[in-house]
Amino acid sequence: MNKTFVWGHRGAGFIGTQNSLSSFRRAIEMGVDGVKSETQLSKDNEIFLTFNQKLKINGEDIPIYELESNEIKEFKLDNGEPIMTLPELFKETLNSGIRYNFDVRAPEVGIRVCQIAREFDLTDRIELAKTSIDSFSLPEIFDKIRRNDKKVALINSVFLKYTNIEIKHLEIENMNKLNVQGINVHYNLASPELFKTVKDLGFKFYIWGVLFNRSIRKYLTMRYKGQYVDAMMSNFPHRLVNLRNEIQNN
Amino acid sequence: MSLICSNCGKIVETVPLKCGHSISLNGETNQWECDMGNCGVVTFDKFLCENCCINSSMFKIFQDFQKLSVDNPEFREELDELDATIVQTKLNNPEFAYWVEFGGGKFNVGKGETDGATVKVDCSQEVMSEILAGRTTAFSEFLQGNLSLQGNLQYAVVYFDLLNLATEIKNDVGVILNE
């Protein structure tokens, strides 16, 4: 039987400063199977790992794509560390064997992530995800990326605007056309029925946003045809790892 | 005789149906009273207009969560692991402000505005009522432009997840008590 794959959101999530090197290291110490982060492209074509699309410099909000790497590097996170680049993350965590899942909000960002992953021979260990806060259709974000890279794993995060997920929201035809492997839903919208539907359609089922023990337990025990949920993402990844090992080892 | 809302001072043009059907004279206090549903049985000098009654009911939900943080080990345990955070909420139509301080084992609520909020939430009374009733989510309302958030969004996410958790636990406890 499969075990649910554990993603540490922005590293160790709420433990310490998110998206910092120390947070990614801590997540690996916690025993996560992979880390998830957001990606932004700088003016000089470097990938930075941050949720923020703009940085406040001298009181002014400036889009990251208008900034050079050296300007972004001057910006400090809450713990004093600089915003990490993707090559820095790969260099630091390559030997841990973890996988990587990156939210991308534009095709060119995904294409650049793939290029860097190829340089590190990590294509097989990365996944690119459409974000759940953007209303883009799958082709708008994934078409160019898929044409550029036939192998990279793609994940469809369902738009958060929906309060009930219907089959039409999943873009099944586009998922098949673009060879998108999985569907990622917020835990509030994850139900046994949706899990069944997604598995019957042949896709992986991911759940994000689980934080409290109650919801973590609920989804770690959810099974269909002897299979657990494929992956879960949390800002408390240590809980997810510990409960997964406790529940799914029996 | 005009009925005046004891909270906002507005003249109440139409009394809620339930109240209209249940006006009675309290023999002990010699005061007129009526049943205002979620706001309980109130004397006319403490009468609330419908909007103030909804706000009062909503605030009571948060007061129940505060009680839950003391009485329920599961909720308390979750609060222990969260960083201390203050969320300031401002409802409009009608205006009503309250704050919630959670984390470090606590869940406290108060009316009005407070300093040092990590997150500020603005929405209508109707939107917040729907979120608390579980008929919509804060995310969905945010993405539709019906709810605005200022400050650290991560803490806003935790806050609304925490409200969901408190509601679930409260419903469970209710079931246990009813049994």
What does this structure look like?
- The complex is a heterodimer of chains A (250) and B (179).
- In chain A, helix 4 runs parallel beside helix 5 (138-148) and helix 8 (213-220) packs across helix 9.
- Chain A has a single domain (5-38, 87-247), classed as Phosphatidylinositol (PI) phosphodiesterase (TIM Barrel).
- Chain A has an 8-stranded parallel β-barrel with strand order 1-2-6-7-8-9-10-13, surrounded by 6 helices. Chain A has a two-stranded antiparallel sheet with strand order 4-5. In chain A, strands 11-12 form a two-stranded antiparallel sheet.
- With 250 residues, chain A is α/β, with parallel strands linked by helices.
- Chain A has helices at residues 21-30, 69-74, 86-93, 107-119, 138-148, 172-177, 192-200, 213-220, 237-247, and strands at 5-9, 34-41, 47-49, 54-57, 60-63, 99-104, 126-130, 153-157, 182-186, 204-210, 223-224, 227-228, 231-234.
- The model of chain B is unreliable at 175-179 (pLDDT under 50).
- Chains A and B meet through helix 8 of A and helix 3, helix 5 and helix 6 of B.
In short:
Chain A has 250 residues and is α/β, with parallel strands linked by helices. Helix content of chain A is 33%, strand content 24%.
- Strand-pairing-aware structural class of chain A: alpha/beta
Largest interface: A-B, 18 and 22 residues
Shape, per Cα inertia axes of chain B: globular
* Sheet having the most strands of chain A: 8 strands, parallel, barrel
Describe this protein with a few key phrases.
heterodimer, A: 250 residues, alpha/beta, TIM Barrel, 8-stranded parallel beta barrel, two-stranded antiparallel sheet, 9 helices, 13 strands, globular, B: 179 residues, alpha+beta, Nonspecific Lipid-transfer Protein, Chain A, 5-stranded mixed β-sheet, 3-stranded antiparallel β-sheet, 6 helices, 41% helix, 27% strand, disordered C terminus
